Amino acid sequence: MKYTIISGTNRHGSRSLMVARQYHDILKQKGIESEIVSLEGLDLNHKSEVLTKLEQEVLIPTDKFIFILPEYNGSFPGSLKTMIDLSDYKKVWPGKKALLTGISTGRAGNLRGMDHLTGSLNYLHVMVHPNKLPISMVDKLLNGGVRIQDSPTIEAIEKQVDQFIAF
Question: What are phi and psi of 55, to 5 degrees?
Fold first, then answer.
């Protein structure tokens, strides 16, 4: 079973990538290897050789995706939508499973963005796990560091990941 964690923004130094790394470490502690895909620096103006290689080597072989979704204007980032749109959607997405975690500096943890991506993924025949975790005030939870230290949030992530492994 191949797991891929997608940091859903192309923004340099994003909190999404920090949270993606934490999910990667949690999976590793559970004996599951995963790969992190960062959209940072990825040319999304067209289907580049780099994107084609990513698709062939990572996206198509993936069985389960974990999306870390920062809130952008009440939804998820356009860079993620563009990456999905540029992909060979008939090979990359159908029959796969996805877990969604929304992050925001506000109160709702990107609930709307997770709903928007759920609709798109369902259209692509991806089964989305029902435990979509909103992580609010992520800037405070990271507290200037690179890892979430808040025990209730870590427990919620652990529970979510355990459920996704069984999904």
Answer: -60, -50
Strand pairing report for 133-135 and 34-38: unpaired
Say how many C-beta atoms besides its own lie within 10 A of residue 40's C-beta.
15
Residue with tokens 């709307």: 112
At residue 72, the 3 state secondary structure works out as strand
Is domain 3-166 in CATH 3.30.2420.10, yes or no? no
Cα dihedral angle (132, 100, 147, 153), rounded to 10 degrees? 10
What is the torsional sign of CA 138, 139, 141, 146? Answer: positive
One-letter identity of residue 158: E
What single-letter DSSP state applies at residue 145?
Answer: S
Rounded to whole angstroms, the Cα distance separating 151 from 17 reads 20
| Per-residue pLDDT tens digits for 38-78 | 999 888 989 999 999 999 999 999 999 999 999 999 999 99
Distance of CA 163 to the CA centre of its chain: 16
Domain definitions of the chain by residue range? 3-166
Q: What is the DSSP letter of 37?
A: E
